[in-house]
Specification:
Layout (H helix, E strand, L loop, with lengths): L9 H8 L15 H12 L8 H25 L10 H18 L2
Helix pairs in contact: 3-4
Amino acid sequence: ALDGVCICTIPELNAQIHHIDHTNIRVPRFSGTMDAFFKLAQQEGIRSWWNGLSPTLLMAIPATVIYYTVYDQLKMTFGFVPGERNIKAPMLAGVIGRTLAVTAICP
């Protein structure tokens, strides 16, 4: 059960945590995707577009390797025969493979 729901922006949450008067904090407003790209490039630099890429790749690559390895092995173990109409083996192998990959990378 959920004890409560907090609907606020990150600057407001940061202000609450650090006991700062958040009335003076300016929250950026974007009119669209291109507007956001241009404003971020102007205010934070183009390199900011790739913030967080390294940790994302460090999680995505092993997750993909685990998923495809488990999927391929389980698909054959469950009796998949190429050319036949058998959806149960690939579907079950996919569900188990994805569950194991997510559990291993993001427990």
